Amino acid sequence: MFVLAFEISPGTPDERAAPVLEFQATAADTRRVALRGAHAVLNVLRTGAHHDAGASSIAHFGELNGVPAAVAREWANLSLAIATRPSTDDGSSGGGSASGGSGLGSLEGSLGPTLEVEVAAGTVPVASAAILGEIVAVQR
Question: Is the pTM of this model over 0.70?
Answer without folding.
Answer: yes
